């Protein structure tokens, strides 16, 4: 497995799960040990960017629309088009290392900012971050949860109303407005 000491910039997002920021890539390492949190990203979609996942070690289940893909280093990149609901899930007890990049690549810094705001508070992966704070980060980060009946306009309106209006009205703020804010704190 890749050692976190190999990278200078990382965020722990759960027990046994670490994200590393490497230029335009986000590298995620999930040990998937017996005492580790299980890596799962619920169905969601993005309006402004595509995602490209590359599995470096292990395997990852990626659901794109209604198609379930089991991705490994041998299967090559997994392209996830914008506006298509998708989810990610590791396999229990199978360590996985993968990278994520965005298309267009100019949005990769926005994606890094999204992850930094999401993971600045422990509990983001387990859902204990708090509903309003999560919706605020989603609003600023081009992420929309997929409802059981996928209606993109309703999902976008939901995030816009809760994350763009209600959360700020109740005092919630993103931790970082830009990557310059992140650098100031290092």
Automatic annotation (TrEMBL):
Keyword flag Transmembrane: yes
UniProt cross-references to InterPro entries, sorted A to Z: RmlC-like_jellyroll (IPR014710), RmlC_Cupin_sf (IPR011051)
Superkingdom assignment: Eukaryota
Keywords: Membrane, Transmembrane, Transmembrane helix
Organism: Gymnopus androsaceus JB14
Residue ranges crossing the lipid bilayer per the database entry: 113-138, 158-176
SUPFAM superfamilies per record: RmlC-like cupins
Protein name: Cupin 2 conserved barrel domain-containing protein
Keyword Cell wall biogenesis/degradation annotated: no
Signal peptide residues on this chain, from the entry's feature table: none
């Amino acid at each position: 497995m890749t050692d976190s000491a190999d990278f200078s910039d990382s965020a722990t997002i759960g027990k046994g799960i670490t994200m590393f920021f490497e230029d335009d890539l986000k590298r995620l390492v999930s040990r998937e040990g017996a005492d580790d949190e299980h890596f799962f990203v619920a169905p969601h979609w993005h309006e402004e960017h595509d995602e490209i996942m590359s599995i470096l070690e292990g395997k990852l289940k990626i659901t794109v629309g209604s198609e379930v893909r089991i991705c490994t280093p041998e299967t090559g990149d997994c392209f996830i088009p914008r506006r298509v609901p998708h989810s990610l899930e590791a396999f229990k007890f199978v360590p996985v290392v993968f990278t994520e990049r965005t298309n267009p690549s100019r949005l990769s810094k926005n994606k890094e900012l999204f992850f930094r705001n999401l993971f600045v508070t422990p509990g983001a992966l387990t859902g204990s971050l708090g509903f309003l704070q999560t919706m605020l980060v989603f609003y600023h980060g081009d992420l929309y949860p997929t409802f059981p009946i996928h209606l993109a306009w309703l999902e976008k309106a939901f995030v816009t109303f809760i994350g763009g209006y209600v959360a700020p009205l109740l005092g919630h703020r993103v931790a970082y407005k830009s990557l310059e804010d992140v650098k100031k704190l290092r």
